[in-house]
Each structure stands twice: as C-alpha cells, then as structure tokens.
Design goal:
Layout (H helix, E strand, L loop, with lengths): L9 E2 L5 E2 L7 H35 L1 E4 L4 E5 L3 H7 L2 H32 L7 H8 L7 H11 L6 H8 L14 H27 L3 H8 L4 H29 L3 H6 L11 H10 L4 H29 L1
Antiparallel strand pairs: 1-2, 3-4
C-alpha cells in the first residue's frame, strides 16, 4: 500500500514553522497598529530630512557653482579633497575646536557648581534661584548676540564704561585678535550654561540618598562624598550634557554671525560659518555641501565615542 504524502508544514512570515490554522496574536496586532501610527511621522521625516540629505550628497559630488550656471558635471570627491586641503577650512576647524572645548568646559564647571548649590537640602527660594538662572536660556541666540554686541561696543558699551569708571583702559572685545575668541566663548557660556544646569540638576535630584547617608555615618566630609560618590554616580548624566552641548557648539553659526562675522580676519571663523560663506558668499554650493557632510561625519564620530564612553562609565 502506498504511503500517504507527508503534510507540508506551514511557514510563517519569519521563516519559522507555524501550526495549521495560525491566527495573528494580539502582539502582532499591536505591532501593526504601532507601525501604522508611526508611518505618517516616518514619511514626514523622510521628506523633510531624508530628501535634503540625499540632495546635499548629490550636490557635493557635482560642480555646483551658482556663478557658473548652477549644476555642472559629476566630479566625484573633488569637493571633499578641496575642502580637506583648504587652509581656511583648517583654520576654521581649529577655531571650532577651541570654541567648542572652551565653551563646553566653562559651562560644565559653572553648571556643576551651581547645580550642587541648588541641590543643597533645606535651601530656601530654590525655585526663584533656578528661575533666574534659566533666564538666558529663554533668549534667542540672535537676541543674545545683539545684546552683547551693544554692551561690548568699544565707544558706547556699558562694559567699557564700567572699566573707565574703575580707571582701566577700554578694550576692543570683539575686534581684537586676542580678545575676540575668548569673548565669544564667554558669551556662549553665559547663554548655554542654563541648559546644563537643567540636565545636571535633574541628575542630582535622581541620585539615591543611601550611599551619601552611609558615607556621612562613616565620617566622610563633603569633598570626599562629592569625589567618591556623587561624581561617579553622576558621570553618565555629565557625559550626556557634554554630548548635547558639544554637538550644538560645533554647529554654532548665528552667534558668530551676529557678533564678529568670523573676524577679525578669521580669528573666530568656525566651520559652520565657513560653510555659510562658501554657500552664500562665493556661491560654491558643491564645496559647501561637501564641508557640511564632513562636519556631519565628525559629529557622528564624536557622538559614538562619547556614547561608548558613557556606557563604560555606567
């Protein structure tokens, strides 16, 4: 007697074997519902973010110069090579590194100190102090630049007027080769320290109290508690704050544009401002797009390194 053929197993969408009469579970339904709800947002992001990125990448490998009629021939990586070998871009990259490291370091120290003061138990008027410290964060960078440009005016500014009253000579804060970059860093620190205060203070509030109380019982002083307990527990939060501010400072354009326009000379010209000049002053769109992608790659690399370091610290 011939044997009956074996029944062929049913395959699921993932390649696994499923039983006859399989029906989608509630989990599969929720997953489909979630993708359906997220689809409009994903499509909007693809249109708003994805298309400009793809178009900029396409522009960066073409001879796109508006002074010569727009889009030209395909030139591959010539714009990238030209950007990497440009002395002005190298100067802008060095200025960006000085500005970013200097601003983030000052903001971190100020925010950490102020957050520790605000986190003291029994502090009165804590909400009022915090509200005052958050005022700079509510001001737009354009307004910050205009305010400080007026305050630091060599002839009409309040800062030089105060120095004159103290018998000190006036300074060319934004026009001196040695004073322009430190002044811009100080203005950025005044504006952005508030953001770090919010992040660090939230981290301090969420820290467990048991290790601190145990250390106090053992006779540890405040400095020992800060060095051996608070800072190690707060390290992941600090790294997140550094990452957020480092990325933002590397992209700073508006403050530079309002305060110095990259001057005097190229003393305060950053990569973002250099990209703007290439795109809208010399109208070299291809070179500006290439420089933008190089900056994007640099930011992504630093982000990956800091995230890995944060995981190791956690």
């Amino acid at each position: 007697m011939a044997s009956e053929p074996l029944a062929r197993p049913l395959l699921s969408s993932r390649g696994g074997i499923r039983r006859r009469g399989w029906r989608p579970t509630r989990r599969h339904g929720e997953r489909r519902f979630g993708w359906g709800m997220a689809a409009p947002t994903l499509l909007a992001l693809a249109a708003v973010v994805g298309f400009p990125l793809v178009f900029a990448l396409w522009v960066s490998v073409h001879d796109y110069d508006l002074t010569e009629g727009g889009i030209g021939a395909f030139i591959g990586g010539a714009n990238y090579a030209r950007t990497l070998t440009d002395d002005l871009v190298a100067t802008a990259a060095a200025n960006t590194a000085v500005f970013s490291v200097g601003a983030v370091a000052i903001e971190l120290l100020l925010a950490l100190g102020l957050s520790l003061l605000l986190n003291q138990p029994g502090l009165r008027f804590k909400g009022a102090y915090l509200a005052i410290l958050l005022i700079p964060l509510l001001v737009s960078p354009i307004a910050v630049g205009l305010i400080w440009r007026l305050l630091l005016h060599p002839d009409l500014g309040a800062v030089n007027w105060i120095l004159g009253g103290l018998g000190l000579p006036p300074q060319e804060w934004l026009a001196g080769q040695t004073t322009a970059m430190p002044t811009v860093i100080g203005i950025d620190a005044w504006h952005e320290t508030s953001l770090m205060i919010v992040i660090i203070l939230a981290g301090l509030t969420a820290l467990p109290r048991d290790p601190v109380e145990a250390a106090m019982v053992d006779g540890a002083d405040r400095w020992q508690i800060l060095r051996t307990i608070t800072l190690p527990l707060l390290a992941p939060v600090l790294l997140v704050a550094i990452l957020i501010r480092l990325i933002a400072s590397m992209k700073t354009y508006d403050l530079i544009y309002i305060l110095t326009r990259g001057g005097p000379g190229s003393a305060t010209e950053t990569i973002s401002y250099s990209i703007w000049k290439a795109a809208f002053t010399t109208l070299e769109m291809g070179r500006a797009a290439a420089a933008s992608f190089l900056l994007l790659l640099l930011i992504l690399l630093l982000s990956v390194l800091l995230v890995r370091f944060s995981r190791d610290a956690a």
